[in-house]
Design a protein that fits this description.
- By secondary structure, the protein is an all-alpha fold.
- The chain has 23 helices and no strands.
- It is globular, with a radius of gyration of 23 Å.
- The chain starts with a helix and ends in a 6-residue tail after the last helix.
Length: 511
C-alpha cells in the first residue's frame, strides 16, 4: 500500500477515534473500551470524512490538497480537545473483572481457532481481491463507477448523478464512493488499491467490532466464538472483497446496536451513547438506502418495547445532522429511486393484493435464512441452532430491555425488506435471487451480536448443570447489581462480576 492510501486511512481512523474520545461520557472510563472504540472509529472516521468531502463538493467545488489540509486541521483540533478532556477525566474505578469464561481452558482453544480462521480469512480476502481487483458487478456498475465519475469530472462532478444513469442507482448515498474518492485524492490519482483498501477496512472493522462488542459484555471466550462464526461465513469474506456497500452498511447496523447496549449499561450516568448510536444509524443511512429502513425499524422497535422519551430524543439528536445531509443529497443531487418511480397507485394496490407475491417472498425468506452462511456442508444458522440447544439461553437475557429492542429491530427489518419485495419489485423472483442473500448479510453481524449476548457460555451451561438446584442463588440475588436490564446480560455467572463492573461504571460508588 502506498503512503498516500495509508495516509488517507490513518487520517480517517484518527478522526473517528478522536471524535469518539471527545464525545465519550466523562463518567465512563475509556480504557476498558479502547479496542471497541478503535473498531468503531474505523467506520465512523470514514463516514465523517465523506460528509466533509460532500460538503466541500457542494460549497467549494473540486476537492484536492485543500481538502487534505482541512482534514488535518480537523484532526489537530480533535486531538487538542481529546487531550484536554482526558485531563479532566474522573478518577478511574476498580479494574474490570474478568469473565469466568476468560480463565477457562477452552477459551485458549477457541482463541487458537479464531486466529487460524482469521489468517485463512485474510488470505482468502487477498486472493479474491487479486483475482478480481475491480470487485463484483455492482462495484463496476455503481460504487466504483460513481467514484470515478466524481473524481474525473472536475467541475462537472454533478453529472455523476444524472437521471440518464438511472440503471447505475445514482440515488445511493455517498459514504462508500466518497471513501474511494478520498483515497484517490490522497494518492494523487486513481488506483485499484483504493476501493480494495476501503473494502478491507470495513470487512476487518466489522470483525473487530463484533468481537470487541461481545467481549465488552460477555467476555473473551464468547467474543471469539462470535468472531469465529463471522470469519467462517464464506459469503461475508467473499462479499467483503466484492467492494459492494453491504458489508459497510452492516458495520453501521452493528455499531448502532453495540452503542445502544453501552447506553443500556451506563444510562444512569449518561445519554452520550444514545447520541453516538443516533450518529452511527445516520451513517448507515448515508451508506445505503437500506439504512433509512434501519432507522425506521429502530423507531418502530423503540415504540414496541416502550423506550422512554428521553432516550429517543437523545438518539434523534445524534441522528438529525446525518438526516440533514442525506436530505440535501436526495433533494438537490440524487434522482428518484428506480423502483419507487415506476410505481403508481394502481400498480401498488395490485401487488399488495396478489397472494402469489406474498407466498413467493415468504418461501424465499425462509429458505434464505435457513440456508444462510452455508460452508459446503451446513449453514451457519443451523450451527447456531445446534449450539443454542447445547448451552441454552442466558438466564433472563430475553427480559433485558436492550435485548428486546435489538431483536425487535432485526425482525422489523426483515418484515420491511419483505414488504419492499412484495410492493416494489416488477419481477419478484429475479430481485429475490439477486438481492436477498446480500440483505441477510447486512443483518448477519448484528444478529450474531444479539445471539451471543443472549445464549450462555459453555462454562455457564456446565456450571448450571453441575450445581445442585437447592444451592443455586435465587434470581433476585443474581440481579442485585445496580444496572439496567442489559447489566443482567453483561454480568458474570453470579452477581459478583456484575457488581464489580457496576463499580467500574461509577468510580465514586463504594464497594
Amino acid at each position: 500500500m502506498s503512503l498516500g492510501l495509508l495516509g488517507s486511512a490513518l487520517v480517517a481512523i484518527a478522526i473517528g477515534v478522536l471524535a469518539l474520545r471527545v464525545l465519550w461520557p466523562a463518567r465512563v472510563v475509556w480504557r476498558p473500551y479502547r479496542w471497541l472504540a478503535l473498531s468503531l472509529g474505523v467506520g465512523t472516521g470514514l463516514g465523517l470524512t465523506t460528509v466533509l468531502l460532500f460538503g466541500w463538493l457542494v460549497l467549494v467545488g473540486v476537492p484536492g490538497p485543500g481538502l487534505i489540509a482541512l482534514e488535518v486541521a480537523l484532526l489537530a483540533v480533535l486531538a487538542i480537545a481529546a487531550a484536554r478532556r482526558g485531563r479532566h477525566q474522573v478518577p478511574v474505578g476498580p479494574p474490570e473483572s474478568a469473565d469466568a469464561s476468560d480463565r477457562a481452558p477452552g477459551t485458549r482453544v477457541i482463541g487458537v481457532a479464531f486466529m487460524v480462521t482469521l489468517v485463512c480469512a485474510a488470505g482468502a480476502f487477498t486472493g479474491l481481491s487479486a483475482a478480481a481487483p475491480h470487485g463484483g458487478w455492482d462495484a463496476w456498475m455503481n460504487w466504483n463507477l460513481r467514484a470515478r465519475l466524481i473524481f474525473r469530472a472536475g467541475p462537472e462532478w454533478r453529472d455523476a448523478f444524472s437521471p440518464l444513469l438511472a440503471w447505475s442507482h445514482p440515488d445511493y448515498p455517498l459514504l462508500v464512493q466518497g471513501s474511494i474518492v478520498r483515497a484517490w485524492i490522497y494518492q494523487g490519482g486513481e488506483t485499484l488499491a483504493g476501493p480494495v483498501g476501503v473494502a478491507l477496512l470495513f470487512t476487518g472493522a466489522t470483525v473487530a467490532l463484533l468481537t470487541t462488542g461481545v467481549a465488552a459484555f460477555r467476555g473473551r471466550g464468547q467474543a471469539m466464538l462470535a468472531g469465529l462464526v463471522l470469519l467462517a461465513t464464506p459469503f461475508f469474506i467473499f462479499h467483503g472483497a466484492s467492494q459492494y456497500g453491504d458489508v459497510p452498511v452492516g458495520f453501521f447496523f452493528l455499531a448502532t446496536l453495540v452503542l445502544l447496549g453501552l447506553h443500556e449499561r451506563h444510562k444512569e450516568h449518561t445519554d452520550r451513547f444514545a447520541l453516538l448510536a443516533g450518529l452511527t444509524a445516520g451513517l448507515a443511512a448515508w451508506t445505503k438506502n437500506e439504512g433509512l429502513l434501519f432507522v425506521a425499524a429502530l423507531a418502530v422497535a423503540a415504540v414496541l418495547t416502550r423506550r422512554n422519551r428521553r432516550e429517543l430524543r437523545t438518539f434523534a439528536l445524534g441522528l438529525l445532522p446525518m438526516l440533514v445531509v442525506i436530505a440535501l443529497f436526495k433533494l438537490v443531487l440524487a434522482p428518484s429511486n428506480d423502483l419507487m418511480s415506476a410505481m403508481g397507485s394502481g400498480t401498488l394496490i395490485g401487488r399488495a393484493t396478489d397472494p402469489h407475491r406474498y407466498a413467493l417472498v415468504a418461501r424465499a425468506f425462509v429458505e434464505g435464512i435457513m440456508g444462510f452462511g452455508v460452508n459446503g456442508l451446513v449453514s451457519g444458522v443451523w450451527l447456531l441452532v445446534a449450539y443454542g440447544l447445547c448451552v441454552w439461553r442466558r438466564s433472563n437475557a430475553a427480559d433485558a430491555p436492550w435485548f428486546r429492542l435489538a431483536a425487535a429491530t432485526l425482525v422489523v427489518m426483515l418484515l420491511g425488506h419483505a414488504a419492499v419485495f412484495v410492493l416494489t419489485a416488477p419481477d419478484v423472483a429475479r430481485l429475490l435471487n439477486s438481492s436477498l442473500e446480500r440483505l441477510l448479510l447486512q443483518l448477519w453481524p448484528a444478529a450474531l451480536l444479539v445471539y451471543f449476548l443472549g445464549v450462555a457460555t459453555p462454562e455457564e451451561a456446565a456450571a448450571e448443570l453441575a450445581e445442585p438446584r437447592e444451592l443455586r442463588a435465587p434470581e433476585t440475588e443474581k440481579q442485585a447489581a445496580p444496572q439496567g436490564g442489559f447489566g443482567r446480560i453483561a454480568g458474570g455467572v453470579g452477581g459478583e462480576p456484575a457488581m464489580l463492573r457496576a463499580r467500574m461504571d461509577d468510580p465514586h460508588q463504594q464497594p
